[in-house]
Queue: 2 jobs
Job 1
Amino acid sequence: MNPIALFLISAAVWWLVSSFFEWSLHRYVMHRPLGSFTYPFKAHALIHHQIFKADHTYHLINEPDWKTIPMAWWNGPVLTILASIPVIPVAVWLHSWEVYFGAAAGTFLYYSIYEYIHWCMHLPKTRLVEKTWAYRRLNGHHLLHHRYMHKNFNVVFPLADFLLGTLVVRSKLSFAQPKGPSVPNVQPLDGAAFEGASV
């Protein structure tokens, strides 16, 4: 097969696989301590989620807190290598390193988009991407993750959330969600009572 075709097919397949990799990493490493390796859990669940909630604090309030939005600089290369390791036997079997490099490229592109849109979600500036339908849907999806930390683990492509049963498209109860042109309404459709109010 043409090496460019192998590269592109591998990149596309690994883009889809990256949804499950992101989901697993987010659920099992960033939202719970992993033995003595607690850095991702502390940085994400204990710090990021305490600063950015599902209310007006979903958007950056205090300038120094911008540092808690992106992952550490070394995450991109490390996660790309780790996520691509399962492709090595396939690349060896096919005698084609294009398969491996395609998978690495698909993973790195996925990670780069994750970092960019996650940055835009918490630090909105009415960028061109923020005006798109897809971004608005993903922003609402992520807002609900900040509302329900054990749901909506995907930021980029919620295929794994959909297939693994962690997808939430609307809140169960009304809450004071942030406003803005790129933040969709994720309130209950049935007019459920505002959380905290007596019913």
Note: The mean pLDDT is 91.
Job 2
Amino acid sequence: MPDRRAIVNPVKGKKPPDTGPLAIMAATESDLRLLSRLADTPVVEQRKLYMSSLQVHADDRRRFTLAGPLVGAPYAAMIVEALGVWGVESILFVGWCGAISRHVKAGDIVVPDGAMVDEGTSGHYCDPSCRVTLPARHLLQQVRSALQHHGARFHDGAVWTTDAIFRETVEKVKHYQSRGALAVDMEQSAIFTVAEFREMAAAGILVVSDELSDYQWRPGFNTPAFKIARETACRAALSLANAWEEG
């Protein structure tokens, strides 16, 4: 087996943040702001994290971190690595995705129970032949329960993670449709892979922002259903974070 020890490794630094055991990673700036606004726990620390922001929320019962925005598998991996070395044990990713199943529509919520690898980052953390990465089962169940608590209907199933948003070709979509993928995103498989490699737990909540299932692009970013689903996903994520320290 080749020597896979890294020369460059994540480091804590001189003044690492006290993150708490759970971090919510938001793919978009708008969802990061929404999470921060909806949180009823005060911000006790805020700093830059590469090109993103990190907020630590805490009171006498709980402590958790919000981090983002982030785009793409390599950058998502960097954020997971930084959070892990600071003591985060579990990652909940809140992102957007494009529907490729005809049963999934803009404004729906997808909870990935696996992510099909079509990005270049995962192969550096697992066997390069790895084709599907998985969430932590216990955290996946907690995500489902949090969404149900908020009355959300959601799709369970696999997603396809790609590096190239502008190369989602008809052939690619048909291929991943045939494998049962519900949607496409740019981060989820790498987050699962890096978290497992670093012995962390990870799960995700993806809000469907657009549709590609009929091989035409149908944006849904401005629909009321999409806006409602984003808020539901953020509220569910925060309720899980709140229960984490309390329970």
Note: The chain has a mean pLDDT of 95.
